[in-house]
Every structure is written in C-alpha cells, then in structure tokens.
Write a structure and sequence with these properties.
223 residues, alpha+beta, two-stranded antiparallel sheet, 5 helices, 5 strands, 26% helix
Amino acid sequence: MVGGRQGKNWKLTADTTLNAAGFLVAEYILDGTQLKLGSGTAAEAAALVGNDFKSWDPSAKMDHNELDIEDSTCNPWSVVSPETGGSPDSIFWAAQVTAPLPLEAISDLFNQAVNEQASALLPKIRPEKNMVHVTKDFFQTSPNGISSDTVTDDVLGFFSLVISYAKGARKEESDTSPKEIISIMPRTDFTNIFSLLKADVSGDLYNIVTKLACYKNNEDNVE
C-alpha cells in the first residue's frame, strides 16, 4: 500500500512494471473478493478511487512529496510524474481486469476482439491489437492428426494465446512488457496451461504451432 491510501474495497499499490530501475508504477486495486458483478459495488469503489485521486492531486511539484510504501525496504518514495498537478481529469487510466476464465471463454474473447465487439474484459481502444483468433479453419490440414472437425474450444483458446504472443512479440521492442503485446495476459505459465489439455493435443507441440502460424484472420474468413 502506498502512503496509507485505502478505503472501502480499494487500495493504492505499486508495481515494478516500468522498464527502468528505481521507479514504480502506482496502481489503484479494487478488491475483487468483495465486489460482485451486477451489484453496483465496483462502480461505487471506482468512484471512491476517483475522488481520492482528485483530492490527493499527486505531482512531482506537490508539497510533502515523500511517501512510504508498505513492506518496502527503500522508503521513502516520491512522485515524479505528472510534473505538475491541477488537472487530474487529464490522467490516462490503464484499466486491467483479473478474472479466472476457462480456455473456452478465452477463445470467445479472442473472437470478440478480432471482430471489435464490446466486452467488459477487453479495452475499448484497439481490442484487436496483435490478437489472432485461432479457429477451427486453422486446423484444416489436420496438424498432428487434429482436424477442424475434432478440435475443441479449449484447444482453440490455448493456441489463440500462443500464436498471438508469438506473432505479436515480433512487432514489439525487446524490453516491452508482455502486458503490452496483446490485451490478454495469462497469470499462469504456458506449461501449466498446456497441462490442462495435453491429453487432447497429440504429437510435437512446435509442429502444430508452425502450421497454425501460417494462417491469419481475415474478417469472417481465414487465409
């Protein structure tokens, strides 16, 4: 927790996601263990966060610019951006949602993203960025004996993640955070994810990936 800033169902924290030593990125976290979809509690917590940010108005030139971070051995810290305050409404918010999802749901999210459909779990701006929705048509040559008729939605969800990261990584700088490659980032490593469906994927995994990488989404078709 940063500077003791917390309230009902929210807390200000910090993360080491910035690609520079000695800097942290502040994050407001909403308590998902207490917030329930459709109850209005998330909107209430978000409003409290907005009010806290406006009243705090942090900047590099603010008075008393020293903050302690809970459990940090490097206290105190100071705000370095924005340089000046007074315009909290101009701050860009990079919202993230952490949710437990089956691979079938991941496949559906990829489908929504490439078709630019609205979803609470996808960004409104460029949801399709580097997203490749691996569909049944990607298996038209039956790699490793897996045909377009037999491939399941959980397998499609897994390979949508793999192919999207593989292709998207080529377009980014070497020090780019994985969060910036596509709009979905697994919190579980690919080895453990693959173990959930290994029984349904026969043969060499690399061979399948090289075959699927030859295809891309083209509106309602695959080419």
